[in-house]
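Example 3.
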Amino acid sequence: MECLSITGIGVVSAAGLDIPETLRSFDAGQRNVSRTDPDLTPLDYPVFRVSGDLRNPSRSPSRTVQLALHAVDEALEGAGLGPRLSGLRVGVCMGTTVASQLNDLAFYRAYRETGAAPMDPVQRFLKGNLADAVAREAGAVGPCVTVVNACSSSADAIGVAAGWLRAGLCDVAIAGGSDELNRIPICGFGSLSVFSREPCRPYDRDRQGLNLGEGAAVLVFERRADAERRGRAAGVGVAGYGAACDAHHLTAPRPDGSGLEAALCAALGEAGIGPEKVVFVNAHGTATRDNDKVEGGVLARVLGTEIPVLSTKGFTGHTLGAAGALEAAFTALALREGWIPASPGFVNRDDEIPIGAVRERRTVAGRYAVSTSLAFGGNNAALVLGRSA
Amino acid sequence: MNIAGMGVIGPRGRGIEAWERALEEGWVPPLDAAARGAPVGRCPVYAVPADAMADKGVLAKARRADRFTRMAVLAACDAWRDAGLEASIDKRRLGIVVATALGPHATTFAFLDGILDFGDAAVSPTAFSHSVHNAAASYIAMTLDVRGPTLTLTHFDFAFHHALLTARSWLDEGRCDAVLAGTVDELGATMEYVCGRLLRAAADGRIKPFAFAPAPEAVPGEGSVFFLLTKTPAGRSYACLAEVSQAAGLAADTGAVQVLDASGMANDERAYRGVLAPGAAVAGYAPLFGSLMTGSSFHAAAGALMLRRQKRYACPVQDNPHGIALCRVTEAAAVTEVFCTRVDCAGRAASIRLTGTEAGGRSDK
């Protein structure tokens, strides 16, 4: 299938407020780890928080929406599309977890205790559908929906938007994801005993679990001919997407990894390439025992044991609904820049995983790279990003 | 796209027969607060009856799941079985798209109960994992052993429309041979309270879809509807899902029926008056399932039955202050196409066009 041109990228995470700051963090191996805010929860864990001022936060009371709009601004600027999009058919597909739920604790406490509660949090929720909020702010007119596929949400959002472009439903796609640090997932993941008490160590033998993070990433992409007509011959693009379900367990990956393998093979097939063309993988790499073991086995099986693998969650934490898009954006940037950073936290190879992560910054010279996402519900998604010859 | 099978679970029961019976029988009063043991002053609602969800066989793998997920599993499994294509579809080539407006909110509130009652460190992992929006899709996949792509979408007005667009995209790209696409939304106690505060309750229990009121009256509802979709005719071939359009201005043939999604959920329904298709007989069946952000799927199921049976179903509530051409009686009719039209609070419209054959064409816009 046609490789869709990425003409704009926007990222915000603990690694940086924009692309230049993020690349500097990656180059320096800088991990901006903090602790959970005691005003948010009494649980004390390492987290990856976005520090610094977001652009125009007054546009929405929701931090998840604020993060998304911050990334949208950078992506639209990069795409040369300015702040508004009048006259274009623009599809918006965004992934999230937190912003999809009416989970305001103060509202619910009031309702529970008195049988009545103020409606302000509900009104905020009803105005906070992530894709709708982005479309409204950007002035986008076209298909618009929010993907809520847990941790693969934004990888799937990119895949859905790619389908819209190929079907001619829109001319420009804004796709990505956003999630804030929120008490609900902190409590929830805590209850599942998957948190690490130290900064996470994806793929490492001694990994103890994940850290949560917050952030957003947005890709602006177009059919190649449309991008070229605008004078935006992009260097990188979305070449393939694959998704498959484990049909196994609500929270644990299928031990044989067959769902992820099917997703990865489908993405390679859509890109029209064999595994030998892939020069690195930005893995889901949460640093939980199960995820890295299953994912590593699949990557080795499909792409070989020598494939360079990194997990940028060591820089960002697990940003849930934003993770797939952040990692796809980082993958595209690495192809564009020609290098990948050392995988943060990886020191010792795990004998149970047939591959290790990269320990040093390295040059990447090929045209294709893969980003993988695994999620609650048994969702698996893979994106192939490509660079022009 | 071909509708190969359907599954419906709603306030009038479970199954195609129950939905068709509701269309034939017309309006029945909703449950008032006293009848269902709700706090005094709560508005009447249309809730899915407990006996409609008692199926230990289908729900064996979803025995720990919440009500939201159970409704979705039952409707999706019914659609799958209704099509009768078990032997011909590879489960690795079967996809799932679940559309919801509000997700499993009752379980989200149950999780918040855990925080308030026991503290942040002692919440239930089961409640957390089931509060995630895609839990329903996951249980459908586990129950039917579906290995293809699985997606859950949310939007307050057009979630179902995007589910259909996604299903079409997957079929056209060759990603899937068939897709289970549908909707689910539930009405938990807290959401009943929210509806009571934000919506204008219909004092007589009757949603009036043709009032086109600036402040329409609502009776909150719940339910799940699923369709097994294939690219070409297969299974029971109820109808062709010919077009999903982000516009209301679709030309109607003689023999067309336009079904309006007006249900009292929007805070202003006057815009519906401007999207009436000239020449079409107009219907609206929200009084059968209640005010629901994802009610378009119930209407698509009604449209598929009209085309399959060559029958128009009488509008269950026929208050008609604007004198439009309503379907007034249930009768045999040469139904050539059905438009299901939805308009949101901002006046944005979307339509789903169903025809009887593949000749109906397509042009997604």
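Chain A has a mean pLDDT of 96. The radius of gyration of chain A is 19 Å.
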